[in-house]
Amino acid sequence: MPFNDDKRAGLSRRTLLHAGAGLAGSMMLPVSLISPASASGDQPALGTWPAGSQGDTVYIGATVPRTGAYAVQGEDELKGMQLAVEHINEGNDLLKQIAPKIDKGVLGKKVALVVADSAAKPNNAVQSQQTFINDNKIIAMTGSTSSAVAVALNKFAQREKILYLVAISGSNDTTGKDCARYSFRQCVYGETCANAIGPVLVKNFGKGKKAAFMTPDYTYGHTVTKSVNDYLTSQGGWEMVTNQVSPLGTQDFSQYLTNIANSGAEFIVNVNWGRDAVLSVQQAKQFGLTPTMKMVIPYQIPFLAKEVGPDLTEGVFAATDFWWTMEDKYPLAKAFVDAFQKKYDYRPEWGAENAYMQFAIWARMVSEAGTFYPPDVIKQYEKGETFPSMVGDVKFRPEDHQLIRPVVIVSGKAAKDMKNPEDFWEVVEIVPGEGLMQKPDAFGCQLGDYT
């Protein structure tokens, strides 16, 4: 599938020129003009190091969507980040089980979060992170939800030599052709979800089915659709009878649903995300397409079932990163769900869980490395050591900085079967991650330099 054009992704030519690794002519001041020319020890200044870690507090810059089509998911992510920072600074036992060397902070420093609204637009994210570099000397960045933002911040992180802790990003490209030495992704993505949900679909519905795809027009949508279609056609003999590609922020899906109605499809594979997913699911029902056609969600959005209601998600198969009932299987998940619910008065969705884990992992890597110096922290990640998480033991793949972790397959519950108001999904299967992943070089990852 082709990459979306830059304008539709919200990524202008100007921002590409400013954020692209190694490109000249940036309007942004080099960090070397802000930081001291030399550092303590034998290492020269790099990125915001050592200036960013010389006080009693270190800062992480978060650019999450708080407005726009992905705002609901962005707020959930932010809550996970805020809880993680609180737990790091108080030396909470849950955090210490993941990062055992923290002690009321990281390497004697308190951690603080500075936040801006990206509105899921790469320009906004890059410019806000540049402000955080100038004003706060941040030692790490986070936030995405839109993979177009993640790709832009990958390039920016590599250029500025500041760690990027990817938030939600489902595109294969994030740790594929657009990977970066300074970027790490914890969550599941298109290829792993496709290879996890594909066998479930073939087992439950059989071979030789006809599917209509609904695809958002940017890197996440195109790569997820390609991975799902590749599996279903090669392993199940399914046929893509139409692929309806829509811009991010679409309000009216009628033209796309009309085309699907006339396509002869038996299944709708809905790759849309955020508010787009909610509206397209609701409108598919209003058009009378579902439940006659079966809906499949290969990359589940947080809060989908809550927003559309269980009548529309009943019997729907979806692939996801985490679901709160996994607390029955994993002790860390139980501790996290309890802590999150106590603080925010609802059970966490997977955006919050993913964000919390990214911060906990970062705290582990920095404290194990014994320094904030970015290359040493990166090399700690790249050791590929196994550590505990909400979904069992996991580890990073050093070749592309992708976490090897399971994919969770869920099925929507009928309203009558829900045990509480948040009991929307039944966990069908937890699929081990390693067998779902492509070979490290299959999607063109070349990490780049440490310095």
Automatic annotation (TrEMBL):
Keywords: Amino-acid transport, Signal, Transport. The keyword ATP-binding does not apply. Residues 57-413 form the Leucine-binding protein domain. GO terms for biological process: amino acid transport. This is Leucine-, isoleucine-, valine-, threonine-, and alanine-binding protein. It comes from the Bacteria. Belongs to the leucine-binding protein family. It comes from Mesorhizobium plurifarium. CDD domains: PBP1_SBP-like (cd19987). SUPFAM superfamilies: Periplasmic binding protein-like I.
